[in-house]
Amino acid sequence: MNYEKITGTFPSADKSCDVAYYIYTPLEHAPKAVLQISHGMCEYIERYEREGFISDMTARGYVVCGCDHLGHGKTAPTEDERGYFAEYETLADNQKLLYEIMRKTYRRLPYILFGHSMGSFVARDYMIRYGSTLDGVVLCGTSGTSKQPIGFGLFLTSLLERLRGDRYRSSMVENLSNRGRNDNWKNERDKLSWLTDDKERRDRYRSDQLCTFIFTVRAYNRLMRLLQFISSDEWYEAVPKSLPVLIMSGALDPIGDSGNGAQEVYGKLCDMELSDVRIKVYENGRHELLNSSIRDRVIADLDEWATDIIEGVREKNLLGAEFFRRFM
Question: What is the mean pLDDT of each run of 10 residues along the chain (328 residues)?
Fold first, then answer.
């Protein structure tokens, strides 16, 4: 193992529970940056450890950290708590609380937020509320404007919440949410084929009780509200112009409309004249690029981009120090 692992908890921003967090410090390299993971729907940070991403990044000199979102992982230790959160804003607020914990130890390291899938939605909320804390953001497996009728979904989940309670789990809502995801792989006879082309990783996912729960109607409602917000002109106009952004998507990812959603986000961010926005769309890539047959290339591309960001931060710091030396 090439890292030291530290675990802990902090009170959630909404005071609803304690949030579990994890810090992985490289043992073989001096830390060069902090990479904070905002994980996806129905997964958790230690899955990134199990599937090898964390060791891949610590081997490259990154301090990796992350917290289990509300309703996920060890933040939600009981079945009743899994798949529930009251307000989507709290997810980004908790990411900020973890950032503050990390900055107590790593005050000067470049800081990058990596968001996958739902976690990329949370990262996008974070960008406009706390973007000044970051040196770069990676949006992996993100989505453009929803092709499904969000208005109907909001109505249905609100109605079910009033009738059955906010922790009700609806198989109808779940099926509507998953509709069409696996259309490209019906011949594989595996409803999780859309996730990755790696069958062993799919099997580990399906056997993991921390990945196979159903979202409550309240959480689905708030997730749809979040997607609606980050697809709005208001969101695009609020993104800090100087914040570097990397968008990564599989060309066959149904969450990202087969790469079209990622291209939409990229195009709109370019229209907002961000100083540094880049995109990587991987041919034959499905939703979970980090758990696919092309994961080595994806991780190498991520590291190459992050190295550019790190060099940019270093140059900016040197210029600032030189200015201070000459004029102060």
Answer: 96 98 96 98 99 98 99 97 98 99 97 99 99 98 87 96 98 93 92 97 98 98 97 97 98 96 98 97 97 98 98 77 54
Residues ≥6 apart with Cβ < 8 Å to 15: none
Side by side, the strands of the sheet bearing 136-140 are 3-11, 18-26, 62-67, 33-38, 111-116, 136-140, 245-250, 277-282
Query: How distant is the alpha carbon of residue 293 from its chain centre?
Result: 20
User: Model-level pTM greater than 0.90?
Assistant: yes
Non-local (6+) Cβ contacts of 203 within 8 A are: none
- How far apart (Å, rounded) are the C-alpha atoms in residues 100 and 8? 14
3-state class (DSSP) for residue 167 = coil
Helices assigned H by DSSP within 215-259: 217-230, 233-238
Task: Delineate the domains of the chain, giving CATH numbers in brackets.
Answer: 3-327 (3.40.50.1820)
